[in-house]
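>> received
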Amino acid sequence: MKTTDVGPADPRLPALFPVLRQLRPHLTPELFRSVYEEGHAQGLRFTGVFDDGTDDDATGGHGAHDRADGGAGDAAGGRTGAACLGVAGWRLLVNTNMLRTLHVEDLVTTSAARSRGVGRALLGHLEQRARDLDCRALTLDSGTQRTGAHRFYHREQMGIAAFHFVKRLDGPE
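>> returned
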């Protein structure tokens, strides 16, 4: 397995969509591309775990980051055509509460890849990225109904530090 960043122009981007859609079923391919193109200018990034035929360290060495600007990954895994097993959407945030943080907005693995270390690899990769960026914390939002995911985050030493309130402005769901 290989963990790599996927930019908006990266040919691997379409491979992220079916995985991300398991978490965000309202997305269409066009909406996903549009959100990423607009969000990228605001710091949104996506990292994927790709099946390269090995079960080795899924992080690709935690410290090695492929290009987030849309450049291709190296020849080992993360290559165009390799199956995507997990996706994380994240961005760097600076605020008065946590100061500098890497915030995870999306974290999902394929149903077939769950309990195979893919989620742990993504979190480990992002934690190292946060450390490399001198962040004080790695933060993550998770829907209240996702109790299985919450158990996973607790196992990964993440605690509940705040509530995230939402007031929909586009009408009822």
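>> DSSP finds four helices and five strands in the chain.
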